[in-house]
């Protein structure tokens, strides 16, 4: 906490000037941790946490029902983890690109059991009727 040398008002450590009298405030004491600047808020920006949760669930679902193809969801996890870093750098376009790629891999991982079942049914019917995998 800083104290204005001119009027004696108490201010937070991140203030540079007294908002009451306008006098410059002394720097924070040596060893005080600097206050990081607030992260900018981007309206309509993707949420990395939401994409990460869905990517992990889709990967687990895909691996449980169709092991090798469910691993596609790892790409979704990797891209979802890049969203927050891109937003922290102020790269909104990069965050949206990572979110879109995460969504594609997440959908593929979640759909992999369905695709495997459909392929199995197709192969089963084909071998019954003798036109596929005979």
Automatic annotation (TrEMBL):
InterPro entries: CD225/Dispanin_fam. The chain crosses the membrane at residues 51-81, 102-133. Keywords: Membrane, Transmembrane, Transmembrane helix. It holds the Pfam family CD225. It comes from the Bacteria. This is CD225/dispanin family protein. GO terms for cellular component: membrane. It is found in: Membrane. Its main location: membrane. It comes from Bittarella massiliensis (ex Durand et al. 2017).
């Amino acid at each position: 906490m800083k104290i204005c040398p001119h009027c004696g008002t108490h201010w937070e450590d991140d203030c540079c000037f007294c908002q009451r009298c306008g006098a410059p405030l002394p720097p924070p004491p040596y060893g005080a941790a600097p206050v990081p600047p607030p992260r900018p808020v981007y309206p309509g920006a993707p949420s990395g946490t939401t994409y990460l949760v869905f990517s992990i669930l889709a990967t687990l679902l895909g691996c449980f029902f169709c092991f090798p193809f469910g691993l596609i969801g790892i790409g979704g996890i990797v891209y979802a983890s890049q969203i927050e870093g891109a937003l922290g750098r102020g790269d909104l376009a990069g965050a949206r690109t990572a979110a879109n790629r995460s969504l594609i891999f997440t959908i593929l991982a979640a759909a992999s059991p369905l695709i495997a079942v459909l392929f199995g049914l197709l192969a089963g019917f084909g071998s019954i009727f003798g036109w596929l995998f005979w």
